[in-house]
Amino acid sequence: MTFFALLISGCSLFEQASPDLVINIDEDIILDIREHLGIDGNGFYLNMTSQDSFECAGLEYDYQFNRRGQVFYLQIKGLKNPSSCSGENHHVMNDLFITAENGVYTFNLDIGPEITNQGVLTIEDDLVNLAFNENHGILVAHEKLFRIPQGTVWGFVSGGEQLETVLSWVHENFMDIGDESDLKAGYYGHFEIPQSDHVLKIIPEPEQTRIKTFVFHLNGDESQLQNFVDNFSGNFGESALIEMTSWTGKTYH
C-alpha cells in the first residue's frame, strides 16, 4: 500500500479545509492510458484513479508533470482537499495529457518523498506500451494499448424487445458503406475486445442497461455516419437508440 507523507499535521480527510491544502492517503493508484482521438497528431491521456473510494466529492491529486526530452516526470505529492466534503463512494481521478511522437521514453513516477517508480513508454504506429520495472503504490490496468486505426467505427444500439432486429438492421445496412472490423482482441482505450468472446466492451460503459455493441470499418468519408444514424432514426423512431463513435472521436446519435 502507498503512504503519502502527512503534509498537514492533524488534517483529517473529512475535515473542511481550504482547497490548496494537501492531505495524506493510504492506497494504491490505478494507471491507465488511452489515445486522444482527433487530427491534432499523437496525443494520449494517462488516467490516475484511486483504488479506494472516499466519502468526499471533489478530491484531486496534487501532482507535477513535465517532459524533458525523452524523459517524462510525474510526481504525486498527495491529495488536494476541497473546501467541503460530501457524498460517498467517490474515487479520486485525474487525466494527464501526453503529447509525444513515436519513440521510446523513460517514465519516472514518484509518490511522496520516498517512493520511486521507473518505467518505459513506447509509442508506435499501431500500439503504445507503458511498463514499469517495479510497481510501488501503482497498478497499471493495461500495459498495452492498441491504437484505433483510421476508419474504425464502434458503438451500441438499444431497442427493448426488438434489440436483435435492431442490431441486424445495423449490420446489414452498414455493409453498404463499410465492412466488418478485423481488429484483434485487446485494449483500445475507448473500448476493449476481450480474448474470450470478442464482444466489444465500450469504455466507459453506456448508461443503458440492455444494449448490443458493434465495431466496423468505414469505407469512404466520415460524413456517411450522420446519414446512417438519420436513416436508423427514420426507420425505428424513438423505439430504438443508436450511438456511433468514429476514429476521429466524433459521436453520432
Any chance you could write out the topology, listing elements then pairs?
Blueprint: E1 22-23, E2 29-35, E3 43-54, E4 60-68, E5 71-80, E6 90-99, E7 103-111, E8 115-123, E9 127-132, E10 138-140, E11 144-146, E12 152-158, H1 163-174, E13 178-180, E14 186-187, E15 191-193, E16 201-202, E17 212-218, H2 224-236, E18 241-246, E19 251-252
Parallel strand pairs: 2-10, 5-7
Antiparallel strand pairs: 1-5, 2-3, 3-6, 4-5, 7-8, 8-9, 9-11, 12-17, 12-18, 13-17, 14-15, 15-16, 18-19
Order of helices and strands: EEEEEEEEEEEEHEEEEEHEE
Total E-strand runs: 19
- Tell me the helix content: under 10%
Oligomer: single chain
Distance between the termini: 43 Å
Question: What is the 3D form?
Answer: globular
Sheet with most strands: 7 strands, mixed
Tell me the Rg in angstroms. Answer: 21 Å
- Low-pLDDT segments: 1-23
Describe the structure.
- The chain has 253 residues and is mostly beta strands.
- It folds into two domains: 125 residues, no CATH class; 101 residues.
- It is built from two helices and 19 strands.
- Strand 15 and strand 16 form a beta hairpin.
